[in-house]
Amino acid sequence: MISRRLLRIKVLKSLYAHLKSESDSLMGSEKTLVASIDKTYDLYFQMLSLIVELANYAEQRQEIAKQKKLPTFEDLNPNRKFVENSVIRLIAESDSVNDYLAAHKLSWKQNPELIKTLFTQLEQTEYYQQYMAKAERSWSEDMELVSKFYTTELEESEPLEEAIDEQSILWNDDLGFALIMVTRTLSNMRPSHKEVKVVAKFKNWEDLDFARELFEKAAINFDKYLEEVEIFTRNWDVERIAFMDNVIMVTAMTELINCPSIPVKVTLDEYIEIAKYYSTPGSSTFINGILDKVVTKLTEEGKIKKSGRGLIG
Question: For residue range 35-47, what is the model confidence (pLDDT) as tens digits?
């Protein structure tokens, strides 16, 4: 499922783009935010189907080899262990996967070179060669191969990143999250299953409301909340404060004030961690120091009110 952290990142990116574009259409920017969240879920299904495409490519190669004028014994009797991998077959025959792919027009048909590259890369790995060399077959061995492919071959794959960037600009930076969802799906699969139990888009639908409201309130109150932040940045060189730092601090402040069920520590930890990857070197330390002061001030003024597990302290 799409995590709250990813939703926060989506909100930050959408807010940054909205403010930089000086757009008057808050509704339009919000639609783009929701579309980017939906596309992350699309990427999950796209990635889940990738191993099926590799198996199909391997089978096509075997069929072509059989058509040679002088086929070898190996050409006529290929090792079909990967092609018939039980985990891959379950994904390939799953209505829950295929129906979603068809409904959202997702496929790898436009990326034959990528499929060839990834299969060649897989073929050369030691774990694939060891898997193919064993005569016996088992669900656990099949699962181990597929899991290793997803956890070791893809996240740093430049050809894959280029391909998904070409398919959708909204997939930028989403690959890691999609792969996490795929590995969770694999961990829940069993040999007795007839269907793939796909991961739900959200833990609950309140998560989408959380993202939309966070974006709306941060956008509407940006200038007001930024003034609160600037009380504690007056001794800093304003020109050296990255605009993304301000976006992160204002969004964190928006969450602190408007999300009573989320503990203060959770909010601070999330945005400080996000700053490590989406702003300048040193931003996380700077943001941490400023937000600590903002929390103290807002708490004294009674503007941060937490309930239940979110009680301060």
Answer: 999 999 999 999 9
- Give the chain's domains with CATH numbers: 4-187 (no CATH), 221-310 (1.10.940.10)
Q: Which residues of the chain have pLDDT under 50?
A: 310, 312-313
Q: pLDDT of 112-160, one tens digit each?
A: 999 999 999 999 999 999 999 999 999 999 999 999 999 999 989 999 9
For tokens 């605009």, name the residue. 243
SS3 letters across 13-29:
HHHHHHHHHCCCCHHHH
